[in-house]
Write a structure and sequence with these properties.
Keywords: Biological rhythms, Cell cycle, Chromatin regulator, Dioxygenase, Iron, Metal-binding, Nucleus, Oxidoreductase, Transcription, Transcription regulation. Pfam families: ARM_KDM8_N, Cupin_8. InterPro entries: ARM_KDM8_N, Cupin_8, JmjC_dom. The chain is of the alpha+beta class. It has 2 domains: 132 residues, no CATH class; 204 residues, Cupin (Jelly Rolls). It is built from 9 helices and 12 strands. The strands form 3 sheets. Strands 1-2-10-7-12-5 form a 6-stranded mixed beta sheet, with no helix packed on it. Helix 7 links the parallel strand 1 and strand 2. The longest helix has 19 residues. It is elongated, with a radius of gyration of 24 Å. The termini are far apart.
Length: 359
């Protein structure tokens, strides 16, 4: 038994009898039979040449079910069938002495399960992809890190900066009156800045061959803005849930304890994209700490009192004359964006930031 198969087998149930395959009547008997055969073959003869083909048939058939009608109407059992097919395919790819291309395909298959399937067997595919076996790939491409033009900040409108305010000072001066502020000096202890600074190379190391949804377009209101699945180096949003190693590199700001919710109620997102990426004016549903880790972003904020003016700078260019505050957020800066404050964001260079939504 190879070290890889030993590693993979450690996350599996000890026997087929402990391997659940329970579905509603919406899943045809023939499909359930194919799943049972794949399961039994995996325990009886994992190197059988038909294992991979049988798994692919399950994937292909369930894929058609996932793409029939609208996504919200897809029965969850078909998403689970798809995930089981992915699991059997991964196991067939990892058996014996797999090649680098086999492992890369196994990682992609896991990610497709995360994107299109549903959780099965206590997130077994998540456990597989973060087993030590899979963490050794690096990608060799380089990403352009060109910079956009530096905006000229109006000194009269520049956001206030403060260094490590106490909890009480932050509450009194900024949280209670709902005033935006840039907080400095509170992220220097993050592993993202110290033990393994975030960079393209670091992302390649921990997740270079991951498949993720990406957003294509300079801003999400463009007609040609798209979401798709690519094997690239994570030029996407919402990375924290998909790449748990990133969550270990950051810390929730202490000021979030001033909210009414628990730590589990804090929504954490990572945002990674090239220079020129724009988030048009929008509001967040909660208080927001935006922590900049890599690169710089230009940010302009408007008070929620301006909401009746319908602030869309493209459709209503005169709104740019309304009162606003602005800043360039750099590595280590944390911007407090109060609830419902309008904000426009533009990346000036390759940028990686983390947002914490809290109430």
């Amino acid at each position: 038994m190879t070290p890889m198969w030993t590693d993979v087998k450690s996350v599996l149930p000890a026997s087929g009898a402990e391997f659940p395959l329970c579905f509603s009547e919406k899943v045809e008997t023939s499909v359930l039979k194919a799943l049972e055969l794949s399961r039994d073959l995996m325990y009886r003869d994992p190197e059988h040449p038909s294992s991979a083909d049988r798994a692919q048939l399950i994937i292909d058939y369930s894929w058609e079910k996932l793409n029939t009608g609208t996504w919200r109407d897809v029965d969850k059992d078909w998403r689970r069938v798809y995930s089981y097919g992915c699991l059997f395919k991964v196991l067939s790819l990892c058996n014996g002495n797999p090649s680098q291309s086999n492992i890369q395909e196994a990682i992609r298959t896991c990610d497709m399960s995360f994107l299109m399937g549903a959780s099965i067997m206590d997130d077994i595919l998540q456990k597989l992809i973060f087993s030590k076996t899979f963490i050794f790939f690096n990608m060799k491409q380089k990403m352009k890190t060109c910079c956009a033009s530096e905006p000229v900040i109006n000194a009269a409108k520049e956001l206030t900066r403060i260094y490590c305010p106490s909890l009480e000072h932050f509450r009194k001066e900024f949280l209670d009156p709902q005033k935006p502020v840039i907080i400095e000096g509170t992220t220097t202890h993050w592993p993202a800045f110290t033990e393994h600074p975030w960079s393209i190379d670091y992302l390649r190391t921990i997740a270079g061959y991951r498949t993720v949804p990406i957003e294509v377009g300079s801003k999400y209101t463009d007609e040609d803005w798209q979401k798709m699945e690519w094997d690239i180096w994570l030029s996407i949003s919402c990375l924290i849930r998909r790449i748990p190693e990133l969550k270990e590199d950051i810390r929730i700001p202490d000021y979030c304890c001033l909210g009414e919710g628990d730590e589990d109620d804090i929504t954490i997102n990572a945002w990674f994209g090239p220079a020129g990426t724009i988030s048009p004016l929008h509001q967040d549903p909660q208080q927001n700490f935006l922590a900049q880790v890599v690169g710089r972003k230009y940010i302009r904020l408007y008070s929620p009192e301006e909401t009746p003016n319908n602030p869309d700078l493209e459709k209503f260019p005169a709104f740019s004359q309304a009162p606003y505050q602005e800043c360039v957020l750099g590595p280590g800066d944390v911007l407090f964006i109060p609830l419902k404050h309008w904000h426009y964001v533009r990346s000036l260079e390759l940028s990686f930031s983390v947002s914490f939504w809290w109430s």
